[in-house]
Write a structure and sequence with these properties.
The protein is α/β, with parallel strands linked by helices. About 40% of the residues lie in helices and about 20% in strands. It has 10 helices and 8 strands. Strand 4, helix 5 (about 125-135) and strand 5 form a beta-alpha-beta unit. The longest helix has 17 residues, at about 210-225. The radius of gyration is 18 Å and the shape is globular.
């Protein structure tokens, strides 16, 4: 039987506009549901670590433990290593990996964590099976993913409606599932996990600085990132549609009463002892 491997294309890529968002993420704003379960001396695997900001936070939260961050893109791991080095962290390392076939023995880690990963992979159930395999009995599998169809904003914007429809079509054409948040519990059960706690969390952008940052990031991402390239190559949108979506983002960001919320599904699973 062939070894499982990634079949999806990562929709966002690693353009500066994407990393602007990824480097903003912390354990506090992106993994709060997991933090009460962490203890000193734990060994943690952080899947899809990107530039390593959450990974570094996790390392600081498990003194005497060790954190391994993995990603499919070797280049982004250089930035993750720089993040860890800049914070003086020693008990941390990084490696290239595919979540569908992790190169670690069974029962290796106390915690396996994935933030905004399962929405982008070709087989999220297989990914969760691998996460389950490499965690120790009694250990924790934690995942958090946005749910694009549940994103909501004010004031109403036909341009943002068009952007959301476009993004979901591009993500699915790339082999992913943009509405992953609502599916996490179902995927975990299909993966054979039985002790599953499902919760949700949000990011909200409402102050002038938050609106400027969020809208500007998405406007730039819509025009210049791998997502934009994939939309063009896949025939989902041309330059005119992408410019209109970027303009809608900037227009929303200028609204004094503007508000945007991103819903995330979360699962915290215990492997049977």
């Amino acid at each position: 039987m062939p070894e499982p491997r990634e079949t999806a294309v990562y929709t966002h890529g690693h353009h500066e506009s994407v990393l602007r968002s990824h480097t903003w993420r912390t354990a506090a704003n992106s993994a709060a549901y997991l933090l009460p379960s962490l203890e000193p001396h734990m060994r943690i695997l952080d899947i899809g670590c990107g530039p390593g900001t959450i990974t570094a936070d996790l390392a600081e939260l498990v003194p005497g433990g060790h954190v391994t961050g993995v990603d499919r893109v070797p280049e982004i791991l250089e930035q993750a290593r720089a993040t860890a080095a800049g914070r003086g962290l020693a008990d941390i390392d990084f490696a290239v990996a595919d979540v569908h076939a992790l190169d670690y023995p069974d029962d290796t880690f106390c915690v396996v964590h994935a933030h905004q990963v399962l929405q982008h992979v070709g087989d999220p159930v297989q990914a969760l099976r691998e996460m389950k395999r490499v965690v120790r009995p009694g250990g924790i599998i934690a995942a958090r993913d946005a749910d694009y169809a549940a994103m909501t904003w004010y004031p109403q914007s036909a341009g943002l409606d068009d952007w959301l429809d476009l993004y979901r079509r591009v993500a699915r054409a790339n082999g992913g599932e943009p509405d992953a948040g609502r599916r996490l519990r179902a995927w975990a059960l299909k993966a054979g996990l039985t002790d599953v706690t499902a919760t949700s969390g949000t990011w909200t952008f409402a102050t002038p600085s938050e609106r400027a940052w969020w809208s500007g990031m998405w406007a730039d991402r819509t025009l210049a990132s791998t997502y934009a390239d994939r939309a063009r190559l896949g025939g989902q949108a041309g330059d005119e549609e992408l410019r209109a979506a970027a303009a809608a983002w900037r227009a929303w960001g200028e609204q004094e009463d503007g508000w945007f919320s991103v819903l995330h599904g979360e699962i915290l699973c215990r492997k049977d002892a």
